[in-house]
Design goal:
- Helix 5 (160-210) packs parallel to helix 6 (225-274), helix 7 packs parallel to helix 10 (434-444) and helix 8 (321-338) packs parallel to helix 9.
- The protein contains ten helices and eleven strands.
- The relative contact order is 0.07.
- It has 470 residues and is of the alpha+beta class.
- Helices cover 56% and strands 15% of the residues.
Length: 470
């Protein structure tokens, strides 16, 4: 038989409460009985003061208890004076024979539990009852101990009135225990439903989430761990929904990026086959351009995929980063000039900037940043590369002139396939993978990359890299 979470919680509450109530009842029963017997024992010991006075008087007159030892009847008469001044110890005249019989039994039990002992607690009169607790009442005359009265504490309630009192108290405790148990079960049922309801809902919504329905959301009704779990579920569903949309957009964007050059290639080849376009150097150059663009896209996708799964290799070693920057800027001068842009760099005059990293990947980082700046900077503008350092960090900045990027878009430009323009013309906008690859390279060097305003009027990409990356 399969028990759900609500049933298990209710069963746990029920068993715990039942065990608690039963334990309380047993403890109350034991405590009441023990306390009542202690109370009756204390009353009995108080009554022994009469016998104590009588025995001291006998010893003072006779100088010994030998007379009592020789005459057991006299010993019984002496003990009977305990009840001589307390008629209330016995039932009223109108009591039934049964009540009188119980009272006589109590009298006999009480009297037989009294013994007389000498100074060394040696038995003089009475009977020793083994395994019984004895209370000692000393017989003292003018500071001299004459002997002891030994009183055996009762371990059962004998009198009917005492039994009725205890039965009434136990019935009262039992009734209270049952009421507490019933109320506790009601509270346990309410709490069980309150706790299990969001868990059951979470299980149902999780099954829907696993089947691909990422629109599921849970209503958060509490601030405890269950409420936090529901909130985490909503965050997970939201993230999965966003990832699913991103995946769909990714496939659509990649398909579009690859369809355009493939369509151009197909059209040009068909035109050459039909004789519409001659098979000359110009036509082959166009085909080569589209193939190169498609190859660059495939290479970018491959690099990004490798960096995402952590398979992109890094050969980190000590290097002079200023040389890497100077080499990249020099190689990009021709392309910047062809685009009508001025490219310059500013290096610190204090000698080489040393750090630990992968020179090839850092060169790829700067090339992607320069490629991005070249594509999006208007003709006649400028691009500046500045390198600086402090005790622990190397800072690389690539600044360009107008146009700039709106502040609300600056975090998104590092996402793959995100571009500000709507067209998908790779000759102006690119595939939108360069900055995503830059982000992965910077993260692999335990650095950070972000965009800010450029003093030239465009955008500035700032890269901060630790000198000792692992």
């Amino acid at each position: 038989m399969r028990i759900n979470v609500g049933g298990k919680l209710w069963l746990a509450f029920f068993c715990t409460l039942t065990l608690t109530v039963l334990t309380m009842y047993v403890m109350l029963h034991s405590s009441l009985k023990r306390g009542f017997l202690d109370y009756t024992s204390a009353q009995s010991i108080q009554r022994l003061e009469i016998l104590q006075s009588a025995l001291v008087t006998i010893y003072r007159n006779e100088g010994t208890f030998a007379g009592l030892q020789r005459d057991p009847e006299r010993w019984l008469q002496v003990k009977s004076i305990i009840f001589s001044d307390s008629p209330g110890m016995f039932p009223d005249v109108g009591s039934t024979a049964e009540h009188q019989q119980i009272s006589q039994k109590f009298y006999r039990e009480f009297v037989s539990s009294i013994s007389l002992f000498g100074r060394e607690k040696n038995l003089l009169m009475g009977v020793i009852k083994p395994e019984k607790t004895i209370s000692w009442v000393p017989l003292i005359d003018q500071g001299v101990t004459l002997g002891f009265i030994g009183f055996v504490k009762p371990d059962v309630v004998v009198r009917e009135v005492d039994q009725k009192f205890m039965a009434h108290q136990l019935t009262f405790f039992g009734t209270i225990s049952v009421v507490i148990l019933i109320v506790s079960i009601g509270v346990a049922t309410f709490l069980t439903r309150r706790i299990s309801r969001p868990i059951v809902a979470l299980s149902t919504y999780t099954e829907a989430l696993a089947s691909g329905d990422y629109r599921q959301r849970l209503e958060v009704k509490s601030r405890d761990e269950i409420g936090q779990l529901c909130d985490n579920f909503n965050r997970l569903a939201q993230a999965l929904e966003a990832n699913e949309k991103s995946r769909a957009n990714w496939i659509a964007d990649i398909s579009h990026e690859m369809r355009t050059p493939v369509a151009v290639l197909k059209a040009q080849i068909e035109a050459m086959q039909d004789g519409v376009r001659p098979l000359d150097t110009e036509g082959l150059a166009l085909l080569e351009q589209k193939v190169s663009g498609l190859n660059a896209l495939v290479d970018d996708l491959f690099e990004l995929a490798l960096s995402d799964i952590g398979a992109l290799s890094y050969q980190k070693q000590p290097l002079e980063f200023d040389r890497v920057v100077a080499s990249c800027v020099e190689q990009f001068q021709a392309k910047a000039g062809y685009a009508g842009l001025r490219l310059s760099h500013l290096l610190p005059p204090g000698g080489p900037i040393r750090m630990h990293g992968d020179a090839k990947r850092l060169g790829q980082l700067l090339n992607n940043l320069l490629e991005n700046a070249t594509r999006y900077t208007s003709t006649g503008g400028a691009i500046e590369v500045e390198l600086s350092e402090n005790a622990d960090t190397v800072t690389l900045q690539v600044r360009d002139s107008a146009p700039t990027v709106p502040p609300e878009q600056r975090e998104k430009i590092f996402e793959r396939l995100h571009r500000l323009e709507n067209s998908r013309n790779r000759s102006t906008g690119g595939a939108g993978l360069g900055l995503a690859i830059c982000t992965n390279i910077v993260m692999a060097h335990q650095g950070r990359i972000y965009a800010e305003d450029s003093p030239l009027g465009g955008l500035s990409i700032r890269v901060e890299l630790p000198k000792q990356s692992q």
